[in-house]
Every structure is written in structure tokens, then in C-alpha cells.
Design goal:
alpha/beta
């Protein structure tokens, strides 16, 4: 380990940047479905040593000492650290989000030429947040183990920004590394995903860095003890607390509510072919009237049938025959929730006619009438809309949905939906479920979250499994069950502790029949959101500033 640390510090130029990129790519193994999070105990210290080398090289070139305990490091050092962070982030997102390229192969004749741009430009943009994180960390850098805390504060702050800036994209936030196995997953209920990010970097980076720093310390044994104790003191209570939370007694399943989840597994390439629309709709109707064994069973005893995101490849509210077919399917008192596209032609505030297109969740009553509607708020960039839509369309580009003008965003905050014979629920479409701050209007808490999605764009890659795992984390953070219905999987019934009670695997066709798991009491994370994390960030930076000033005054 000592020779590795020395070698990394001595790297210069493209070798340093390439090594940072490789370390970032290896770090992606910590995410679902691999969950090899111990790899971060190597890659995060490598990031520290690469930044150490950049700081030392810059200081040496300027004829300055490598440590600057009495003041902030200069801007060129922060720039060097930012470049290293960008390379690390580029490797991390390139390896962790490679599956995005699959979406461009669904209609390869139209979109394949964009694949290399998509799989490189998106990681390049997201890596800017890691660059910001390492630059921020370098401003609080030191020669001692406190630079681990500086890195943790910088990276977790930049991850928080990644989840909030512009539309936000908190996919594969570093904190997801410590949400496996299930006992560690429970920590999301207390710390939230950004608090877990802070803990992840400190716990997995500190041992190697502090152990090697001990060679230069005045009390090496104390520092080596700290190198061992830091991960133990951080992770052991989380693991033990998680075991206790999993063992807690809870209310039984609500079997007065019976849900039938339909996973049609329609290939994405076929989904929007006009000649297949009738067949696809008929397959949804057929599956809705079968049981888990695939036998015709009708809908007696069922409260709600649920279809996935954009299940009907047309505008159902524009087709009276479709509404009649839904009415014919549903016995009295049974309802259907489906993802669907819809057009709003109501006049705008100025009285002019509008034409807004939404990716919606529509609830139909037993007469085929729309009983409730939710319009997706968080749209997918380049999938459902284009940044600078009019400009990019003018030069011939279009989003993957091929909807001219793109989709329109629904109103925020999201409404809770209430249907007959059902407790209120929170609707979330596609990746809206991964945003920790996606709240709902009013003071009433939903009894469950309903997530309709279509991961058919991404084939049999790690993408659908990452999406599923982040849905489990959201369930734990809220203390609420999640009913997840996907076009091609993985459809799942997830309880408030993130456990999958029932599921259908990827690319399987079938149904799940289930009661409703109980809602748990509101978690710390659900009650206070990011407040704990932001408080920890402020305290961490104040601690570094205090130690820096203490050292400055001790030399006077």
C-alpha cells in the first residue's frame, strides 16, 4: 500500500488523469447490481493520493511549502484538484451509466449515430460535479488525515448539488454504495442518501490514508488506532441499528386492498408501431384478467389493476372504444391505473388555445371514465424533452420519444391521489422515484408510493437493476411501501424497509397479485429531509476551519 501511495503521488500529466479515470471506473462496481463497495476502500484513497501529488507538484513548482495550514491554498491547486476530480467522475459515470447507450439502439437506424456522443457527453457533464467537489475539498486540504473529511464534505456537497441543479440527476449517488446488504440499507431512514454519501467517503477512505499518514505522525499508534476505529465506529452502529429495525414488529399486510400488477413485457422496438397498437392493448386486457399462474381468473376480489408507464401506445382519452373496453374489463368497484399519454387543449391564462402533451398516470373507474390524473413533473432530458428544444429541433435533432416539441411538465408539488376503496397514494413516474425531495402537496402522508416505469429502453443491462435498487432506498427513506409496475421488469412489491416481497424478473410477462404492505411511522429522513446532511456539512467545514486557525495561532 505504501508503494502504491508513493507511485500515485508521483504520477504526472496524462498518466495521473488516466489513473484517476480508471479509479472512478472501478468505483462504479460499488453500485447495483454488483455492490462491490469495498473497492471504494482502494479507489477513494487513490483519489486522495492523486490530489496530494498535484498539490505537492504545484507547491514545489512555485517554491512554496506543500502544506498551507495558515491559509487557503491557491487557485491553481484547486484547478489541478478539479481536473483530477473530473477524470475520476468521468470514469465513474462512464462505467456506471454505460447502459444509456442501449436506448439509442432501440431504433438504431435513427439514433445509433448519437450513441458515442450520449455515452461520453453525459458522463463528461456529470463529472463536472465531481470536479467541483474535489476543488472545494482542496480549498480545505491539509497534510494530515483531516483531508479525508475535506474530500467527504466536498464530494457529498457536490452530489447534493447534482441532485438539485437544473432538473437534477441523483442517479448512482455515492451513498448508494452503503445500502447493501439490507441492514445497511436501513441507514437511509436516518441519514438520507446524502448523509450516507458523507459516511461512505469517510468510512471507506480513512483507513488506508490514516494508516499511511501514521508514519509521519508524532503519535503513529494513535493514528493507526483511528484508522481502524473510524470505519468500525461509523459502520457497526449502522449495521446493528439496521438489524434491529428489520427485526421490529410491524402491522400485517392490508388484504382488504387487493392489487393486480400487470407486466406485459412489450419489446420497446414494437411498442409504438401503429400496426401493433390493438394487439398490445388486447394483451394488457388479457393479462389483467389472469392470475399469477397465468390462468383466466377474472377480477373478482381485486381492488385495483395497475399497468406500467405509457402502457397504451396511443391517447386513450381520445378513443371512446378504448374507454368502453376498459369499462367492459372492470367489474363494479374495480379500478384501473395506467400510464398513458394525454393532450390538454384547455385555454391558457391569456385565453389562447393550448396543446400540452403529458406523460401521465390516469385512474379509470369501472365505467371507463378518468377518475384521477397525475402528469409527470420530472422529465428525462433527451428522452422526453430536449434542452433548447426549438433550437435543437431546428437542426434536425429529436428526443428518443420522437414527440415533436417534447413533453410538457406537470404542476408541482405533486398531488396525492385518492380513489374509492383505496388509501391515498403518491404517484411517481419512471425515475421520479429516485429524487429524495419529491414531496406531495398538503400535509397528509400517503399510505404508499405507486411507481409506474418502463425500463425496456435499457435492455438486460445494469440500468434496470440500479433503478430498482434506488426505488428500494426511497421506500426506506420514506418508511412507505412502494408498488412498482414496469413494462418489462422488474415489477415489485416493496415494503417500508426496502424488502422485495414479490417481484417479476426482467423480461418476464405476467402479473403479481398482492395486498398492501403497511406504512411505517415517518422516518427521520422523511420528517427532516436534507436538514441533517446540511447541518453535518456546515459542522464539518467549521471543524476544519477551527483546526486550521488553531494551528495558525499555535505557531505565533
Amino acid at each position: 500500500m505504501r508503494s502504491l501511495s508513493r507511485s500515485l503521488r508521483e504520477l504526472r500529466g496524462w498518466r495521473r488523469m488516466l489513473t484517476a479515470m480508471l479509479a472512478g471506473a472501478l468505483s462504479a462496481l460499488a453500485m447495483a447490481p454488483v455492490f462491490a463497495w469495498p473497492v471504494l476502500a482502494l479507489t477513494l484513497p487513490a483519489l486522495v493520493w492523486l490530489i496530494d501529488g498535484a498539490v505537492a507538484a504545484r507547491a514545489s513548482a512555485q517554491g512554496a511549502p506543500t502544506a498551507t495550514p495558515g491559509g487557503l491554498p491557491c487557485v491553481p491547486r484547486a484547478r489541478k484538484a478539479a481536473w483530477i476530480g473530473w477524470c475520476f467522475g468521468f470514469g465513474y459515470f462512464l462505467a456506471g451509466l454505460y447502459w444509456i447507450g442501449e436506448a439509442f439502439l432501440v431504433e438504431a437506424e435513427r439514433f445509433a449515430w448519437l450513441l458515442p456522443f450520449a455515452v461520453s457527453l453525459m458522463p463528461a457533464g456529470l463529472a463536472l460535479f465531481f470536479a467541483l467537489g474535489t476543488a472545494l475539498a482542496q480549498l480545505a486540504w491539509s497534510n494530515g488525515p483531516m483531508r479525508v473529511l475535506a474530500l467527504a464534505l466536498g464530494l457529498s456537497a457536490s452530489e447534493w448539488l447534482r441532485g438539485h441543479v437544473l432538473t437534477g440527476f441523483p442517479w448512482n449517488t455515492l451513498g448508494y454504495a452503503l445500502t447493501w446488504p439490507d441492514p445497511l440499507l436501513q441507514a437511509a431512514a436516518w441519514l438520507g442518501i446524502y448523509g450516507l454519501t458523507l459516511v461512505t467517503v469517510v468510512a471507506l477512505c480513512a483507513p488506508a490514508v490514516a494508516w499511511l499518514d501514521a508514519e509521519k505522525a508524532t503519535d503513529p499508534m494513535a493514528l493507526r488506532r483511528a484508522a481502524v476505529l473510524v470505519p468500525v465506529l461509523l459502520l457497526l452502529p449502522l449495521f446493528a441499528g439496521g438489524h434491529m429495525r428489520l427485526a421490529e414488529a410491524e402491522a400485517s399486510m392490508n388484504d382488504h386492498v387487493r392489487l393486480r400488477l400487470v407486466q406485459p413485457s412489450i419489446p420497446q422496438r414494437d411498442k409504438w408501431r401503429p400496426e401493433l397498437q390493438g394487439r398490445i392493448f388486447a394483451e394488457h386486457l388479457r393479462l389483467s384478467a389472469t392470475n399469477q399462474r397465468g390462468e383466466p381468473a377474472g377480477l373478482t376480489g381485486i381492488t385495483l389493476v395497475i399497468w406500467p408507464e405509457a402502457a397504451m401506445p396511443f391517447l386513450p382519452l381520445e378513443h371512446p372504444d378504448v374507454l368502453q373496453a376498459i369499462a367492459n374489463l372492470l367489474p363494479k368497484g374495480v379500478q384501473l391505473v395506467s400510464g398513458a399519454l394525454r393532450i390538454d387543449r384547455s385555454p391558457g391564462a391569456s385565453g389562447q388555445q393550448r396543446r400540452l402533451i403529458f406523460n401521465s398516470l390516469i385512474a379509470f373507474d369501472d365505467e371507463g371514465r378518468p377518475a384521477a390524473i397525475y402528469d409527470k413533473v420530472h422529465l428525462v432530458p433527451f428522452g422526453e424533452f430536449l434542452p433548447l428544444q426549438a433550437t435543437l429541433e431546428a437542426i434536425g435533432l429529436e428526443q428518443l420519444s420522437r414527440m415533436k416539441g417534447g413533453f410538457d411538465s406537470g404542476l408541482s408539488p405533486r398531488p396525492l391521489l385518492s380513489l374509492a376503496n383505496l388509501p391515498p397514494f403518491g404517484p411517481l413516474i419512471c425515475y421520479e422515484v429516485i429524487f429524495p425531495t419529491n414531496g406531495f402537496a398538503g400535509q397528509k402522508r400517503p399510505a404508499f408510493l405507486l411507481n409506474l416505469t418502463n425500463d425496456g429502453w435499457f435492455g438486460h443491462t445494469s440500468g434496470p437493476y440500479q433503478h430498482l435498487h434506488q426505488t428500494r432506498v426511497r421506500a426506506v427513506m420514506e418508511g412507505l411501501p412502494v408498488i412498482r409496475v414496469a413494462n418489462n421488469g422488474v415489477s415489485a412489491v416493496i415494503d417500508g424497509k426496502g424488502r422485495i416481497l414479490q417481484s417479476l424478473p426482467l423480461n418476464a410477462r405476467g402479473v403479481i397479485e398482492t395486498g398492501l404492505p403497511p406504512a411505517l411511522p415517518p422516518t427521520f429522513s422523511a420528517r427532516f429531509g436534507d436538514l441533517f446532511f446540511l447541518f453535518a456539512e456546515i459542522c464539518g467545514f467549521l471543524l476544519i476551519a477551527f483546526r486550521r486557525n488553531l494551528r495558525r495561532y499555535s505557531t505565533i
